[in-house]
Specification:
The complex is a heterodimer of chains A (141) and B (468). Chain A is an alpha+beta fold. In chain A, 16% of the residues lie in helices and 26% in strands. With 468 residues, chain B is of the alpha+beta class. Classes of the chains: A alpha+beta (141), B alpha+beta (468).
């Protein structure tokens, strides 16, 4: 078996400038379901799946509870999704509404840095990006 | 259970593979469920990715009998005799660049299995390399501005529809092997043959296409690619995940659609799993373009009728497009990759220094290409090529892995870049270990639109006697 790592991580010193303001805490943190906070990650309200076609990504976003669909419609705008993917070169976002399914379909252009056949990224399909969307923070009413 | 005359009996279509890397033992339980149900049924096996065809075309250059999906026979041998005995045809796009070669291999397998009379249908005509069909094509809107250089084409294949598959089934094929066709056509073909739906019965074609779209990725509709522990759980934890049941669609003559899975298998079928797959790889939900119909799912509803049984209703169809999409594969340069791990005190600083060292080396060597660094353990997939998220992150894990990716036109530069990661063993920061490098010959794909009248899909039936 592999070596056992210490429970307490070794102290490590980051060298680079940390002053840039990309909200990394949005990317991975998930708030427990009982959290009463008004500001929650989308992950608490919805689920998602990513699909690719060339350099274009589609992300479904599906409300866990149908009654949250209007809240998601208000909060998860095309502009906010475009801003979330700006660091990857996204140029446009189109949101398609599917209220009968409690869902949305986001189509994001030029976000895959060349797509599966051209990208330098490990995840050329962008399959993991559904969870970048689910890390977005939304205000619950 | 023959497909040679129309019937209004319920048709079950099982899917035993959702992509070229799927579980090889998945078809078994699906076939057993179809046999137990005892009604008309077909099995589809989707195994053809966007790149697969180009790789298969290259393979065929070296070995003329090759060029089809290598795992096709592995998928078929456990179920072929059972399907043949129960009149369950198998429809697969595993023919890739050589459907006829695949059909001959299937016949060879049939001989070994004691099925000397097996009839295999072959669908050809998707391959338009070197034909007039490639001339003066407009690019698909997602590749606007693309120009086709015919002399560089590795593979050029049109997405054919369901009609040739249906024809092969009507003529008695027990296995149908195609090259490129739309994935939902693998399911719609048996529906056309079984129900005798008209070519312009748009709403029924839409319902059948929607069913095919839900089936085409296998377990992605039955609890695969879905589990998010504590949020969306798949029953049975790892054992449930390890025994996922692949999907079965129950189709009615009027176009009713119900998705389920074999009893006793892992996974789940409910509104959530079905909705995720319904929207998978979709663009405009009002206009999902296929060779057979334009599907509108904006009015679709999904209802849980019973455990693991979801009924879908409300698919609408519009007339099929006049131009079909063709995927054209071209040489895409080379990708060199290398990874090295750093762990323990100051690991991030050592990894960052290693990354900066690599970029300096690429510059000193004058290698032409594009480089990207990732720190696996800090940020490995969300970042852009410029590394903005990595630079902003103060996260300093005690165990992480530096990755260099370098894309270049020529092979030598990609190999040299990957080698530079290896060279960190003696020339890099302290304590780097576990180097792996890889150099990949890349393929670029572009999509173009081909007028339907330029195409001539061909259907033929092979048997051991005729192939001899």
């Amino acid at each position: 078996m592999s070596a056992v790592l210490p429970q307490d991580p070794f102290r490590s010193v980051p060298l680079q400038d940390l002053s840039r303001s990309v909200p990394l805490q949005d990317l991975s943190r998930s708030v427990p379901l009982q959290d009463p906070s008004r500001s929650v990650p989308l992950h608490r309200l919805a689920h998602a799946r990513a699909g690719d076609k060339g350099n274009r990504l589609n992300l479904s976003l599906i409300a866990h509870r149908a009654e949250d669909w209007p809240l998601l419609a208000r909060e998860v705008t095309e502009a906010r999704v475009l801003a979330l993917f700006a660091h990857r070169g996204a140029t446009a976002v189109r949101r398609y509404d599917l209220p009968a399914l409690g869902a949305f379909n986001f189509v994001i252009e030029d976000v895959l840095q060349g797509g599966v056949n051209g990208a330098l990224n490990l995840d050329g399909h962008g399959k993991s990006l559904s969870f970048l969307l689910l890390g977005m923070t939304v205000e619950v009413a | 259970m023959a497909f040679d005359r129309p019937s209004s009996a319920l048709l079950r279509i099982g899917c035993g593979s959702g992509f070229s890397g799927d579980r090889l033992d998945a078809p078994g339980p699906v076939v057993e469920a179809l046999v137990a149900a005892a009604g008309p049924a077909a099995l589809m096996l989707e195994v053809l990715g966007e790149r697969t065809l180009a790789l298969a075309q290259r393979e065929r250059l070296h070995r003329p009998e090759a060029g089809f999906e290598p795992a096709l026979l592995d998928l078929l041998w456990p179920v072929l005799a059972r399907c043949a005995a129960h009149g369950i045809p198998i429809v697969t796009n595993g023919g890739a660049a050589n459907p006829r070669g695949a059909a001959r291999a299937v016949l060879g397998l049939a001989r070994e299995l004691g099925l000397p009379d097996l009839r295999v249908g072959v669908v050809e005509g998707d391959d338009i390399r070197g034909t007039g069909a490639l001339a003066d094509l407009d690019p698909w809107e997602g590749d606007a501005g693309a120009v086709l250089e015919p002399d560089k084409v590795i593979a050029a294949n049109v997405y054919l529809g369901a009609a040739p598959i249906a024809e092969a089934l009507r003529r008695g094929a027990q296995v149908v092997v195609t090259g490129r066709c739309s994935d939902p056509a693998l399911a719609l073909g048996p529906m056309l043959a079984h129900f005798g739906w008209a070519e312009d019965d748009w709403d029924r074609l839409a319902a059948g296409t929607m069913a095919g779209h839900l089936l085409e990725c296998g377990a992605q509709v039955t609890g695969g690619y879905f589990a998010d522990p504590g949020v969306k759980d798949v029953p049975g934890d790892a054992l449930g995940m390890a025994t996922l049941g692949f999907p079965i669609a129950e189709i009615g003559a009027e176009g009713s659609v119900l998705i389920t899975k074999p009893a006793g298998t892992g996974g789940r079928v409910d509104r959530q799993t079905v909705t995720e797959q319904l929207l998978y790889e979709l663009h405009d939900p009002a206009a999902y373009l296929t060779p057979d119909v334009v599907l509108d799912i904006t009015g679709v509803t999904a209802a849980e009728e019973a455990p693991d049984r979801v009924r879908l209703a409300g698919a609408r169809g519009r007339p099929r497009p006049e131009r079909l999409k063709a995927t054209v594969s071209l040489p895409g340069g080379w990708l060199g990759e290398g990874e090295i791990s750093y762990a323990g005190p100051n690991a991030r600083a050592r990894a960052e220094l290693a990354g900066r060292t690599l970029l300096e080396r690429l510059k000193l060597l004058g290698l032409e290409g594009q480089a990207r660094l990732d720190l696996i353990g800090v940020v490995s997939v969300f970042d852009g090529d410029a590394g903005a998220l990595r630079e902003a992150s103060g996260h300093s894990p005690a165990d992480l892995r530096l990755r260099l990716a370098f894309a270049s036109e020529g092979r030598a530069a990609a190999e040299r870049a990957a080698r530079e990661v290896l060279s960190l063993y003696c020339c890099g920061p302290a304590g780097g270990g576990g180097v792996r490098t890889r150099v990949t010959d890349r393929i670029r794909t572009l999509s173009f639109l081909v007028p339907r009248e330029r195409l001539a899909p061909r259907v033929s039936l092979l048997s051991l006697e005729e192939a001899a």
